[in-house]
UniProtKB/TrEMBL annotation:
Key words, A-Z: Glycosyltransferase, Transferase
NCBIfam families reported for this sequence: PNPH-PUNA-XAPA (TIGR01697), PRK08202.1 (NF006054)
Enzyme Commission number, as recorded: 2.4.2.1
Residues annotated as domain Nucleoside phosphorylase: 22-268
Protein name: Purine nucleoside phosphorylase
Keyword Cytoplasm: no
Pathway: Purine metabolism; purine nucleoside salvage
GO cellular component, one term: cytoplasm
GO BP: any one term: nucleoside metabolic process
Pfam families hit by this protein: PNP_UDP_1 (PF01048)
Job of this protein: The purine nucleoside phosphorylases catalyze the phosphorolytic breakdown of the N-glycosidic bond in the beta-(deoxy)ribonucleoside molecules, with the formation of the corresponding free purine bases and pentose-1-phosphate.
Length: 270
């Protein structure tokens, strides 16, 4: 993998991806941030050596380099998921690439369902901790110790200093921001009533199908990472309605301006 990373990194450097400071992963339905970005270069994933290709119809599949709040940033417009048939190493490969290019901070966003019924769709949750229910680890491969500590500490996977900044920014801008535990499941099917009850029992406040692999690898690389969940539906097992993907995308778009405010203010402070 080391040789692949070097080849991908060199390709992107040759294309102008120089000295990035911040990496951003945009989740489902979360693309408005690009309107705030001074785009310098963009490359489709399928043109980048060894990169996976986004297969979900609402994930665009571009790596974008530009300036935001005076900082050089790399934005993933579309991420990868286990449910697309990729391995955990595929899903997290872009994090290793952004780190190799030089980013010092990783900001992650996702769309998720609210398991905590005190949370409402259209609101946001700052991830304070997570539960990995994806059935594997992106660090479980031969030779991982050559790329970082095999037994990566996960006692505080989300950077406390930046999380504190995010909470202060939300308060200053009067943005309703919950804080809680995110459970990451395999998908792509949505959860049953019994599964939502189980998630609540084990301490999850929100559930989704991404983010945790990327966060594990960021910790493996000693890369400070934070993550925001846009809550797009309410997972009440006693009042469960059939899933509506269009509504999920609509809810993500509704909450996204607040997410953009937070990300911009965080980047400005770094």
């Amino acid at each position: 993998m080391t040789n692949y990373i070097e080849e991908t990194r060199d390709y992107l450097r040759d294309k102008g991806f120089e000295n990035p400071e911040v990496g951003i992963i945009l989740g489902t339905g979360l693309g408005q941030l690009l309107e705030e970005l001074e785009v310098i270069k963009e490359i489709s994933y399928n043109h980048i050596p060894y990169f996976p290709t986004a297969t979900v119809e609402f994930h665009k599949g571009k790596l974008i380099y530009g300036k935001l709040e005076g900082k050089n940033v790399i934005v993933m417009q579309g991420r990868f998921h286990l449910y697309e048939g990729y391995t955990l190493q595929d899903v997290t490969y872009p994090v290793r690439i952004m780190h190799s290019l030089g980013i010092k901070t990783l900001l992650v966003s996702n769309a998720s369902g609210a398991v905590n019924l005190d949370f409402n769709k259209g609101e946001m949750m700052l991830i304070d901790d997570h539960i990995n229910l994806q059935g594997g680890s992106p660090l479980a491969f031969k030779g991982v110790e050559q790329m970082g500590t095999r037994f990566t500490d996960m006692s505080a996977p989300y950077d406390t200093t930046i999380n504190n900044k995010i909470e202060a920014i939300a308060k200053e801008h009067k943005i309703k921001l919950h804080k809680g535990v995110y459970a990451s499941v395999l998908g792509p099917q949505l959860e049953t009533r019994a599964e939502y009850k189980y998630l609540k029992i084990i301490g999850a406040d929100a559930v989704g199908m991404s983010t945790v692999p990327e966060v594990i690898v960021a910790n493996h690389l000693d890369l400070p990472v934070v993550a925001l969940s846009v809550l797009t539906d309410e997972c009440d097992p006693n009042n469960l309605k059939p899933i509506n993907i269009e509504e999920i995308i609509s809810m993500a778009a509704k909450a996204e301006p607040d997410m953009i405010t937070i990300f911009k203010e965080v980047i400005k402070s770094l």
